From TrEMBL, chain A:
One of its GO terms (biological process) is ribosomal small subunit biogenesis. Keywords: Mitochondrion, Ribonucleoprotein, Ribosomal protein, RNA-binding, rRNA-binding. Belongs to the universal ribosomal protein uS4 family. The keyword Ribosomal protein applies. Residues 131-191 form the RNA-binding S4 domain. It comes from Neohortaea acidophila. It holds the Pfam family S4. This is Small ribosomal subunit protein uS4m. Residues 332-341 have a biased composition (Low complexity). Component of the mitochondrial ribosome (mitoribosome), a dedicated translation machinery responsible for the synthesis of mitochondrial genome-encoded proteins, including at least some of the essential transmembrane subunits of the mitochondrial respiratory chain. The mitoribosomes are attached to the mitochondrial inner membrane and translation products are cotranslationally integrated into the membrane. GO terms for molecular function: rRNA binding; structural constituent of ribosome. Residues 191-232, 332-353 are annotated as: Disordered. It is found in: Mitochondrion. One of its GO terms (cellular component) is mitochondrial small ribosomal subunit.
UniProtKB/TrEMBL annotation, chain B:
GO terms for molecular function: structural constituent of ribosome. GO terms for cellular component: mitochondrial small ribosomal subunit. PANTHER family: 37S RIBOSOMAL PROTEIN S35, MITOCHONDRIAL, SMALL RIBOSOMAL SUBUNIT PROTEIN MS45. This is Eukaryotic mitochondrial regulator protein-domain-containing protein. Residues 34-73, 290-315 are annotated as: Disordered. It comes from the Eukaryota. GO terms for biological process: mitochondrial translation. Residues 35-73, 290-305 have a biased composition (Basic and acidic residues).
């Protein structure tokens, strides 16, 4: 979507709250207020309330279609206490009217009603729209707006009960399971890429720029404070920074291939598979070296990082392979514990330490493998949630979501219960009440 | 807008570590309200937890106090909507294990953990899919899972003292009970819930039987009557077997009816199914919606402009 139309959708002059995670929407939400009623007629109040709420609840649905969906009977439940049901049969509610007992009962009732919460029926006005597939996808946090959720459905990225569903307006039935393509979900909820060819995100880039600016500001202040100390600091900084800057890609790649060949030479007890992998690895490094001229700088860095990771991965498998042998050796040494001298003990300690290091490395790599750097993905990698997502992140109770497989089950229709409405809406009860009144047949 | 985004709105750019991060948790200047609140509120809430666990939890949250009810409103104007906790991953796994491996029935798990039966079933169903994906080698969205669950309030898994996730015995407000009825009756009459239900509608069941777990009410009743544990269990088993027998009988009757009225003729590719219909269902005007077949004077509208058919169910 072009930028201009996005700003039109999230207007700033006459703000409308939308079903989206946009920062403009968040700003509008932060300054949302209930319009003053004193200067308006009842009709004006209702009109305004209707236009506000419809701006949020599917403005793309035509008014005539929505009015056909509207139902004045709003769903609600009352949570029951099974202990209370077991202890009484309900006759105590009708007990003693006129017999003098009602006074006490009234007092109990009054005490109760203070505690008792009202059921916010009016907040349920738009409950038929919560059944829509695109809304449910957005509520399950699989898309950053209902419009995007709609796009996912239309483009064929969504399945309902295992079958592809192409209608965003499909009304889910209780028990329906919907699955969204994980790549689409990661794209929708992840940070945006700064560059098409790179893997870095715009928010990381912004952070980096901010940090650099702050450092520069601090440096400028320092130079103002004292020129003498500045020189020394600069020297120190240069010393700290130089090795990294100097390390050109060619040298790094050569170092990598050298490391691989050294491992091949030194460790005799490598398994055939590892040897194959290492040879394959050094071959890819050589290939990259030959192609180095044609590639951009950023990309080179990424490939080096990737290769580094690959080598570490191969290495992490090495101790696992030789583990049984090691254990046998450890057993043997235990049998001959009496003869063991100080030196061998030290070696054992070293062995365990290296093994533990390897395990730690393995765990870190596991995490990296689950969330790898991959420039081919449409989102920034490693995956991170996008900006301003946390302010909108909640999952209503009528959905049960499994984020690992990007699937959710629509358990039941949303209901109101004392003190709580399950249709998420940003508006005050008063506004919702006026809206409900607008859609009643006689207004 | 940009001034707000750089000022008070900056707090929402990134999630708070191990906590939700909603608008209502901050004041107008963008300060976290609960930062000033005392830590002692936290102590009371976790009275049943060990010292280490409390420490670990606060450490996960970067030393911030845990969010309260007022911090969990994503929409500041709407006090009637709260971000309610979701099941934590440990709890999901535990439920799945109890149901699939230990063979405990859904209702028992639901009552033990205070989770809706439908939710328990959904958790198991989703977990099955997850396992299938793992076996296929399809990559899971682990990073997404971790990030989202860190942003949401969650119900933890505590096997010894499981906190209730949600109310399980919800009584739906039936349309028949929405009316106000004036029913004169004698003062001496014991007017129970069952009578009230009958007054609303002859076929309406009392609240005790319309909730999801009527067996909990029954057990509590036996407890009040003074039955010991063994007797209660025996009675419960008898009740269970009775209900199973009733279900089997119903199924048997349905099959009998099917055999009587449906005729299936296996074809080369499809089975043809014939069943009895009533021609009376078309009603007087011939347009009854439950009637079968194409009828004169009732043209299909599906070729008209703007008529498109969205499926109403997927099986």
């Amino acid at each position: 979507m072009p930028r201009k139309s996005l700003l039109k959708f999230h207007t700033l002059k006459k703000p409308k709250i939308r079903q989206s995670w946009s920062k403009i929407n968040l700003y509008n939400l932060s300054r949302l207020s209930t319009p003053a009623a004193a200067t308006k007629t009842f009709f004006q109040q209702k009109w305004l309330a209707k236009s506000m709420t419809r701006g949020y609840h599917h403005p793309q649905i035509k008014e005539k279609h929505w009015t056909r969906m509207f139902d004045r009977r709003l769903p609600a439940v009352v949570p029951m206490d099974y202990q209370y049901l077991a202890q009484t049969d309900g006759s105590e509610m009708a007990l003693g009217r006129g017999g003098g007992l009602d006074k006490e009962a009234d007092q109990v009732h009054a005490r109760d009603s203070r505690r008792r919460l009202k059921t916010p029926y009016m907040h349920m006005t738009f409950h038929p729209l919560e059944r829509r597939l695109d809304t449910a996808i957005w509520r399950a946090l699989f898309a950053s707006s209902t419009r995007q959720a709609r796009q996912f459905v239309v483009h064929g990225g969504v399945k309902v009960n295992g079958k592809r569903m192409l209608h965003p307006g499909y009304r889910l039935n209780p028990g329906d399971m919907f699955q969204v393509d994980p790549d689409k979900v990661m794209y929708a909820t992840g940070a945006r890429k700064a560059k098409k060819t790179g893997a870095m995100s715009t928010q990381d880039l912004a952070d980096l720029k901010e940090q650099r600016r702050r450092e520069e500001a601090a440096k400028a202040q320092e130079t103002e404070a004292g020129a003498d100390t500045a020189e020394l600091d600069e020297d120190l900084e240069a010393m700290a920074a130089k090795p990294e800057e100097q390390e050109d890609p060619k040298a790094a790649l050569k170092l990598l291939s050298m490391r691989a060949s050294r491992i091949l030479d030194s460790k005799r007890d490598l398994s055939g598979k590892r040897r194959q992998e290492l040879r394959e690895f050094s071959r890819t490094v050589r290939k990259t070296l030959s192609k180095l001229r044609g590639i951009e700088e950023e990309q080179v860095e990424e490939t080096i990082d990737g290769l580094e990771l690959g080598l570490a991965e191969i290495l992490s498998k090495v101790p696992q392979d030789s583990l049984p042998k090691d254990e046998a050796a450890a057993l043997d040494s235990a049998r001959a514990a009496a003869e063991q001298d100080q030196a061998t003990e030290e070696q054992a300690v070293d062995d365990t330490r290296t093994r533990r290091d390897a395990e730690l490395l393995h765990a870190a790599l596991e995490r990296a493998r689950e969330n790898p750097i991959d420039a081919s993905k449409p989102y920034a990698t490693p995956w991170k949630p996008r900006e301003f997502m946390s302010a909108f992140a909640f999952i209503p109770r009528y959905l049960e979501v499994n984020q690992n497989i990007c699937s959710a089950v629509y358990l039941r229709h949303p209901v109101a219960r004392p003190g709580l409405a399950e249709v998420p809406t940003p508006f005050h009860g008063e506004t919702m009440g006026l809206t409900f009144n607008w859609y009643l047949k006689r207004r | 807008m940009f001034a707000w985004l750089k000022g008070p709105g900056k707090a929402f750019r990134k999630p708070l570590p191990g906590s939700s991060n909603y608008l209502s948790a901050y004041d107008r200047q963008g300060n976290l309200i609960r930062k000033g609140r005392e830590e002692r509120d936290d102590r009371g809430r976790f009275a049943d937890l060990g010292e280490d666990e409390v420490l670990k939890e606060t450490e996960d949250r970067d030393g911030l106090p845990k969010e309260g009810a007022r911090d969990l409103k994503p929409y500041p104007l709407n006090a009637q909507f709260k971000s309610q906790p979701v099941l934590s991953e440990d709890l999901r796994r535990a439920i799945n294990e109890l149901v699939t491996e230990n063979g405990i029935d859904l209702k028992a798990v639901s009552a033990a953990f205070g989770i809706d039966v439908r939710r328990v079933a959904a958790v198991v169903r989703l977990m099955e899919v997850e396992k299938a994906w793992e076996q296929e080698g399809k990559p899971l969205a682990k990073a997404y899972n971790d990030a989202v669950l860190a942003m949401l309030p969650t119900t933890p898994y505590r096997p010894s003292n499981p906190p209730a996730h949600e109310p399980i015995n919800d009584l739906p407000v039936h349309p028949w009970t929405r009316q106000q009825i004036f029913l004169p009756t004698s003062e001496s009459r014991v007017f129970t819930r069952a009578d009230a239900a009958k007054t609303f509608h002859p076929s309406l069941l009392p609240a005790d039987e319309r909730i999801a777990h009527p067996e909990l009410v029954q057990i509590a009743k036996w407890e009040h009557e003074g039955f010991d544990r063994e007797t209660r269990q025996r009675l419960m088993r008898e009740k269970d077997s009775e209900s199973v027998a009733r279900k089997e009988m119903k199924e048997y009757k349905r099959k009998q009816w099917e055999r009587r009225t449906q005729v299936t003729v296996p074809g080369r590719r499809w089975d043809f199914k014939f069943q009895d219909i009533s021609a009376e269902k078309v009603n007087k005007d011939g347009r009854g919606h439950e009637a079968v077949g194409i009828r004169y004077g009732m043209p299909h509208e599906d070729r008209k402009k703007g008529q498109f058919k969205i499926p109403t169910k997927v099986e």
